[in-house]
User: What shape does this take?
Amino acid sequence: MNGKLAGWITGFAGRLLFEWAIWVPAWLLLTIGHGQESRLLSLAAVPACWAIGLALMRLRPPWQLLATILFMIAVAAGAAAIDIHEASIGIWLAVVAWRGKYANITAGQFGIGFAVACAGVFVATGYDAAEKYRFGFIVVAIVWLAVWLIAWNRSLVSQAGLDSKIATRAVRKESRKYAFLFVALALIAFGLTISHALDWMRLPQVDIGSSRTDDIVPPTPREPAQGLPFKVDEDYRPNPIWDILFWIITVFSLFLLWKFFVWMWRDRKWSWQAIKDALRSLFMRDRREEKLPYVEERRSLAKEKRKSRWSGLFQRQSRGPDWVQLNNGQKVRRLYADAVAAGLTSGYPHAANLTPAESLESLERWRAEQAEPKSGNRAAYWRWFAGVRLALLRMYEQARYSPHGIEEHQVADLIERHPERDKLR
Amino acid sequence: MTAILWIVFVLLVIYQLQRIVFRKFGLRAVAYDRAFSTDKLFAGETLWLSETIANRKRLPIPWLRVETLMPAQLVFKNEEADTSINRGDRLQNHASLFSIPAYTEIVRKHEVLCPERGCYAVSSYTMSMGDMIGIQAKSETRTQTSEIVVYPKVTAFADLPLSARKYVYSVRSMLSPIREDHYHVSGVRPYRDGDSFRLINWNATAKTGELLVHKRESMCDNDLHLLINAELLDHANNRRVTKEQFEQALSYAASAAHYIIAGGGKAGLLFNGAVNGYADTVYRLPTKAGAAHLDAILEAMARFEPVTRLGMSYLLKRLIDERTRGLNYLFVTGFIDEEQEELVRQLRLNGNSVELLLLYKEAA
Assistant: This one.
């Protein structure tokens, strides 16, 4: 068995689980009062009917429709034949079988789950035996609604991408965050207001005053109606052909099952390993990098936020744009300007007529003659300056006078030992 | 049931509120810029289309789609067939989908191949955005024009047909027009250092008192005039040249012009077809040297269309009537009829050299 088949089995199992999850409220309601075995049997029948419906949908038309309808009738009629009170379960399983045409889980399928849960709440409200399930159904309905919105968001983003691959995984993931936020806000608002809503939406008790209820005579209990005098044929025996058919189908099913196990056993090592890998990949996804047809870069504009009139009142205004807004050439020129400014604040007598090379050289010579600065940061700065003076000069001249650009790694090398390099990145 | 009705009600209210917010403020402070890495390139080369979108506000945008109608001749590399949406023969709808957080700028670069020459303009784009659920909230169209000019492909000189290659090579190798080596004497001029004494015109010198020599014309100068015929169909002889052959002809002409100008010579252009953005019947560029003039020739060729404005025979007659001499013509045409052959012969008799580069190939 290869990984593809294991993946298919895992996907199929997931789809069965989803279908079962949709019908849990209906199953609980329809099997009220049934025995444990009967309940489990009808529970197992849900995925079985769906799987058979899916298999019948693989036939070519018109056999597809014909076979599905026949199967649905057989299921409903079979359940009614076993016990007329089970007809509702039969009809329900027939509907499940018809749903075999929906092989993929789309956004609308989540709406079906919500609708079934709402129907369950509605029925449980008016049915005392199902009262214990009502709260659970309400929770299930809310969960289906939330999941439906998330699934709907996915399909809407795909539509926004015009159903082509321009809706990349990154875009879908980002967009889904907002859908989650929407659902979270709605649930918070719901949680805060539900108690008021329940009070507000409760129907007022109407006191009709002195109603003559005492005059009303309750009805007398009647004797149970007798069954109709049908003629019962005590010698009736079912046709033996049904027994023969039953055994033929049973033997054939066992034969198929045996063949399947033999097939699985032959590749047991790979089969089980592939299934384990598929399950592991499902839960511990190590997604491959999505191949994008473009190159994308992002940068934050937070620092370019428009300042309010009060924002700069008590803060020193920075000169010029921030470091991250500068290109590589501008960064080098900023470093040169900062070096000259640092010298000026320390008392360096800068002469405007000097070339950049002469300026930096005279700055370094002047610095060497001065006493060691008291501030450790300042001392570290001048040590850095002494180490990169020639490189800084070369890059400054290139940035200022040359048509060739400065590379990012050159700037990174220059500021590697800068005392404030964390601010410069 | 009350709880379910209430949750649905709350969802609807919150949905409406956020929808109002996104419709009102969604596309505010959203800037989109589209730029090509170069606006001029050769056919077969690639460039980068850079899309920059910036959201300069606190409100994020769950999804934003930018659609542009652009020429189908711009081929987006690295994109699979199903991402090329509605690609027709002339236009294609290119769409990009973004999800932009607050105060964020996204730059996306697409590699675009330009296999065909021409002038391509991209003018407007439509931005559509969605709300938190994903339903489209707002859409608006904005205008921004970008244009690129794709020159005809300049092939290697060795790829030119042999006869044309030899001719262009000989034109480029011609000596400077300063050299007077023609037998025809066209006047007199003052003596220059280096002139042979045999050239002295003694009569003129005696009359004027100044040393004068015979002025001879040069045999030819190394200027090349490209004469391109836009006719693709010869009705008389039922011959047709395909559009691909016409493109190849432009490629040859561009290669010849490039070769001449790169060698220091001059090139000019004459075209009898329609030119995008030019109203006259005949497009004419005088011979000049220099890279700027080469760019002008290539840009003009990018706008050529194989639609005849003036029959080639009439154009040849015009050239004959101009009575120019000593010019080198490279005549690129699909086919030539008897009348045109006679006109070419007259051009040659006038002292010009004409080389034919025929495109039509007889079916084997």
Notes: The CA atoms of residues 155 and 178 of chain A lie 14 Å apart.
